[in-house]
Amino acid sequence: MSEESMQRMEALIPMLAHIALQRARWQALAISGKLVEARDGQLIESHADGTVLVIRSIAKPIAVAVGTKRFRARRASPL
User: What is the pTM of this model?
Assistant: First the structure.
């Protein structure tokens, strides 16, 4: 496989990921009738009939530059 063909295939990854996420969302709604997701700083429950219930507000996502590694801080263990 040439470098050019590999780059063309890699360029398709975002589109394929978007399609896979859409299908998973539709499948979850078809099977259970509801889906819990984070959207615009809120945790929401979407139902197959189109109704949306806000469960609670959550922290806004943190913007991270591509290639940056983030680590969770270790919590001190209670004694």
Answer: 0.62
